[in-house]
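Quick one, T. Sequence first:
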Amino acid sequence: MPIKEDQGRFRAIIKGRIKENFRKYVSQGEMIGKRENEFVKIPIPQIDIPNFRYGPKQKGGVGQGEGKPGDSVGDPGDGQGQAGDQSGEHMLEAELTIDELAEILGEALELPRIEPKGTKNVETTKNKYSGLSPVGPEGLRHFRSSYKRALKRYITSGMYDPEDPIVVPIRRDFQYRTFKTVSKPMTRAVIIYMMDVSGSMGDEQKEIVRLESFWINAWLKKHYKGLESRFIIHDAAAKEVDEDTFFRTSESGGTLISSAYKLAQEMIEKEYPPAEWNIYPFHFSDGDNWSGEDTRLCIRIIRDFFLQNCNVFCYGQVESKYGSGQFLKDLQKDFPNDERIILSQIENRDKILDSIKAFLGKGK
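Structure tokens:
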């Protein structure tokens, strides 16, 4: 138990350190670089874990061999160079779950809990066993832990006889499993990411989208079990791709945003009935579109389909020196006060957190 308590305190320290430097971690992508399934390894500087360090063996000196009172501890070395004036950088890799990262995100941005839409949403509860306690109902007594405590008591008191290894636990040896009731939303949800991959969307713009989508996914996974993610890329034409292709594809053609919106609409109509699914379309672009006519078509699809069938429609405009940024202005003009559509301007990596706050801060 003391070891577990120490581990808990240490993890609390790590979470506090991450929260303090959260904007840096988000903008630099340090949390995504070493991802393994549902765990992320994060390099944390300047946290030392106490440990023993053993010197070389068979070297002689005081404490080893024939040392006498008054002997010198050692002769000065003949090393070269000057002593540094900066402390060393100590790095520790902390492993956190995606759910723990989502919790840190929610605390850092003060995000509200999402309220799933629809009448078929069901929330179930289950008991999660979280540790041991010296008190509890007999049905939750943990035999192995109780026996270990009794055995330890027998050995330390000299009562244990290997020839007659009978150990009888008494009341103070008993250990009971503890639990807490956890609510798990059983609603189904899908995120449909759409991204412009035309020539004006460079590597930096795609990296911003990659970082932001990681945190959006983390937060929504905390609220929906079995969250699905789909990926659509477009220039003048749209197609569905896997996640790896989504962030690595570059094209040189023009931009026809409606092609992505039409494909997303088709995907929703075929596979995700709005009455049963919570649907989150996210579109990222630098704001260029082929024509004003296509922009009007996009606005019509947003108004007549996405806003009627999705939890929310989110558009993030990633600033690019080659993009005009006009699409955001058009959406702001046509949807000035509609809370079902959320618009965000992402000027650089430092604005990622602000964009996430805008997208998720309403709890939709």
